[in-house]
Specification:
Subcellular location: Cell membrane
Shape: globular
InterPro entries: Kinase-like_dom_sf, Plant_Ser_Thr_Prot_Kinase, Prot_kinase_dom, Ser-Thr/Tyr_kinase_cat_dom, Ser/Thr_kinase_AS
Order of helices and strands: EHEEEHEEHHEEEEEHEHHHHHHHHH
Strand content: 5-15%
CATH superfamily of the largest domain: Transferase(Phosphotransferase) domain 1
Largest sheet: 6 strands, mixed
Protein name: non-specific serine/threonine protein kinase
Strand order of the largest sheet: 1-5-6-4-3-2
GO molecular function, one term: protein serine/threonine kinase activity
Distance between the termini: 135 Å
CATH class of the largest domain: Mainly Alpha
CATH topology of the largest domain: Transferase(Phosphotransferase), domain 1
CATH architecture of the largest domain: Orthogonal Bundle
Helix content: 25-40%
Keywords: ATP-binding, Cell membrane, Kinase, Membrane, Nucleotide-binding, Serine/threonine-protein kinase, Transferase
Structural class: alpha+beta
Length: about 450
């Protein structure tokens, strides 16, 4: 079964849209644990169980979440006005609102993001419940905070903390924005810490839909994971994997999961490797607008990752060389490990965090070559030649002066030996008197 471009839905009869009626009374059994134990999705059975959803308020979730009415959420979002519209995903539209202690006693004044379940969307009641169960209990600086929820008649809403900068996808792929290299590493590190926390839980959590659109950013570009509708409790004990229906987003899902449906934490590691590539290259995980061989980012980029001589050709050109060369090489090597076809050879997310922490500390200055203007380059070259010529003339003149003061020719004259006559001049000098006498006698 293939994976669609959009997030797929669970195909469970009890969770589909038709079951969400105007007078819906979803009955979901929740096993009540001790205060130190986390409620798992395994503890939630068929909706035909005797306990109602309202019994969630008797569990550990009651101390962490606020239960809102639909009318209250309409009020704080100005009736879900288009002015407060933030965006839309597979779950449904998201609107901005504002809550304080007037809305709920003890609730700190804060902006919030209210997400509505779209009856015609890709997700349903089951995904909504999954978010409530996981985010109602899991607390970490790099997981988005769930403030509360609404379950009233057919309405299913979630109330999150407001993230001022939206999601990573919008920042990374918009033409008029550019994320600096240091910011990209900061975001990658924050997201990695969030995944490492989930995988390190006593009951491991597999995120299953890690992608740029699910990474939210606050005003300081701190990354937080959101949208836990597809999250799944990981294998426990001697189990090696969890068998599930194939769900996720095309381009991010690990190949072994697509082929078998076997889910492990290493599937998240593969998805993280794809996001690392997106941060490194500035390209989307899948892009149908590119040539056929370049449409799948992981397949196209992987051969370049181990050759640092070719790395510049795939690094985001919008950075214009303003990045750590050593950092880029290490990010490429880490992405290559995460994208290994063998799940066993992929690193654990705790190890990924350590590597990214080291990369974040790198401060090697990027090499930036600025080509001079042609006229200026020619003038500089001409000036260099003239300077070399002047130096050569000065050197020759110095040599002449030294020879005039006392060169080898004057200091050590060649002696003329008596028995050696070498030129006509010497011959004339030697026999001058005899030659003159012969001429006089001849007259």
């Amino acid at each position: 079964m293939g994976i669609k471009n959009k997030t797929l839905r669970w195909i469970l009869p009890s969770c589909l849209k038709p079951s969400i009626t105007h007078k819906m009374d979803s009955r979901i059994h929740v096993t009540i644990h001790s205060s130190n134990s986390r409620i798992s999705l395994f503890d939630i059975s068929d909706p035909a169980s005797p306990l109602c959803l309202s019994d969630l308020s008797n569990s550990k979730l009651s101390s962490n979440l606020h239960v809102f009415t639909h009318s209250e959420l309409k009020l704080i979002t100005s009736d879900f006005s288009s002015v407060n519209f933030l965006g839309e995903g597979g779950f449904g539209p998201v609107h901005k609102g504002f809550v304080d202690d007037k809305c709920r006693p003890g609730l700190a004044p804060q902006p919030v993001a209210v997400k509505l379940l779209d009856p015609d969307g890709d997700q349903g009641h089951r995904e909504w419940l999954t978010e409530v169960v996981f985010l109602g209990q899991l607390k970490h600086p790099h997981l988005v905070k769930l403030v509360g929820y609404c379950c009233e008649d057919e309405h299913r809403l979630l109330v999150y903390e407001y993230m001022a900068r939206g999601n990573l996808e919008n920042h990374l792929f918009r033409r008029y924005t550019l994320l600096a290299w240091e910011t990209r590493i900061k975001i990658a590190l924050g997201a990695a810490r969030g995944l490492a926390f989930l995988h390190g839980e006593e009951k491991p959590v597999i995120y299953r839909d890690f992608k740029t659109s699910n990474i939210l950013l606050d005003s300081d570009y701190n990354a937080k994971l959101s949208d836990f509708g597809l999250a799944k409790d990981g294998p426990e004990g001697d189990e090696t994997h969890v068998s599930t229906r194939i769900m996720g987003t095309h381009g991010y899902a690990a190949p072994e999961y697509v082929m078998t449906g076997h889910l492990t934490t290493k599937n998240d590691v593969y998805s993280f490797g794809v996001v690392l590539l997106e941060l490194l290259t500035g390209r989307r995980a899948t892009d149908k607008k590119r040539p056929p061989r370049e449409q799948n980012l992981a397949d196209w980029a992987k051969p370049y990752l181990k050759d640092h001589h070719k790395l510049d050709s795939i690094t985001d050109q919008r950075l214009e060389g303003q990045y750590s060369c050593e950092g880029a090489r290490r990010v490429a090597a880490l992405a290559h490990q995460c994208l290994s076809h063998s799940p066993k050879t992929r690193p654990a997310m705790s190890h990924v965090v350590k590597i990214l922490e080291l990369i974040a500390q790198l401060r090697d200055a990027p090499f930036v070559y600025i080509a001079p203007a042609q006229g200026r380059a020619d003038n500089e070259h001409k000036e260099d030649e003239e300077e070399d010529e002047d130096k050569g003339k000065a050197k020759k003149e110095t040599g002449r002066k030294q020879r005039r003061k006392g060169g080898y020719r004057h200091k050590h004259p060649i002696p003329i030996r008596a028995h050696g006559v070498y030129t006509d001049t010497h011959l004339y000098r030697a026999f001058k008197n005899e030659i003159i006498g012969v001429r006089i006698e001849g007259r």
